[in-house]
Amino acid sequence: MDKWVGLIIGNSRLHFCGVTHNTIVASWHQPHSQTTPPVVIPTEWRACPLWFASVVPDQTLLWCTYPHARQVNLVDIPLRDKYDTMGCDRALAAYGAAERYGVPVLVVDSGTALTLTGVNQDLALVGGAILPGIGLQFHSLATQTGALPQVNCPPELPPRWSHTTVEAIASGTLYTLLAGLRDFIQDWRSHYPHSPVVLTGGDGEWLRHHLTPSLTDLYSEPTLVLSGLVTLIESQSKMV
Q1: Residue 4 carries which DSSP code?
Q2: What angle do CA 59, 63, 69 make, to 5 degrees?
Q3: Of 132, 191, 193, 230, which residue has the fewest beta carbons closer than 10 angstroms?
Q4: Please, are residues 148 and 157 in contact by the beta-carbon 8 Å criterion?
Q5: Annotated catalytic sites, by residue?
Q6: What is the DSSP letter of 38?
Q7: DSSP letter string, 79-148
Q8: How confident is the model at residue 240 (pLDDT cuts 50, 70, 90)?
């Protein structure tokens, strides 16, 4: 295909890319659509075919009504040993990382949820883990307690032993999260010593920055899931 639009429907936002001759030439992000059919695609891309993957059922129903839309499902992604309830976005990220960085590879996707997904040299799912993302951890403390404030992720780490409530929340959340990720990555590399680790999602670059002093071969790929979608669609088009 000469020109088409890719869409990943995440838990919090819509992630788009415009593709021309196998290359992502534009990307943008939008809140979830509330209209049927959705109309958030810029005018210059609206006549193009749309390929999308979704982890949000109500948004899936909306986008199925969009003209020229075709959905990518978990079964379409050539990743071995997937399980039925695995998120399509996780599978696409793992596939995209494998195609770009080789296998084995570990993907850390830090969005609303933070997921780890490991793939071995046979492009088979080794396994992974899921936990609340940074923003969701902060939000849960603000909404499920009587007095704790909403905290935003600071660019740099706060003092570990903090003297304000805001810094204490940031310290407890961020140092614990980073320690847990280091442990997961070190365990992964005990099995796959030379494996790259690819970080993506809204907090991916933040995590790479703060994990790098103690870990090597970490890569930040903000559009990894979209890149996996593009690689998949282009490979399928070559077989038609």
Answers
A1: E
A2: 150
A3: 193
A4: no
A5: 89
A6: -
A7: -BT--TT--HHHHHHHHHHHHHH-SSEEEEEESSEEEEEEE-TTSBEEEEEEEE-HHHHHHHHHHHSSSP
A8: very low
Task: Tell me the pLDDT tens digit for each residue of 190-236.
Answer: 999 999 999 999 999 999 999 998 999 999 999 999 999 999 998 88
Residues 152 and 58: their CA atoms lie apart, in Å, by: 28
Residue whose token pair is 């979830």: 32
pLDDT, tens only, 186-203: 999 999 999 999 999 999
**Distance between CA atoms of 157 and 149, rounded to whole angstroms?**
18
Q: Which residue has the tokens 């399509």?
A: 88
Lay out the sheet containing 3-9: strands in order across: 23-31, 13-20, 3-9, 50-54, 69-71
Give the per-residue SS3 of 185-217.
Answer: HHHHHHHCCCCCEEEECCCHHHHHHHHCCCCCC
Q: For residue 222, say if its preceding peptide bond is cis, omega within 30 degrees of 0.
A: no
CA distance 99 to 112: 25
Closest CA to 129 of 111, 108, 105: 108
Q: Residue for token digits 């670059």?
A: 205
Please state, in angstroms and rounded to a whole number, the distance separating the CA atoms of residues 211 and 111.
Answer: 17
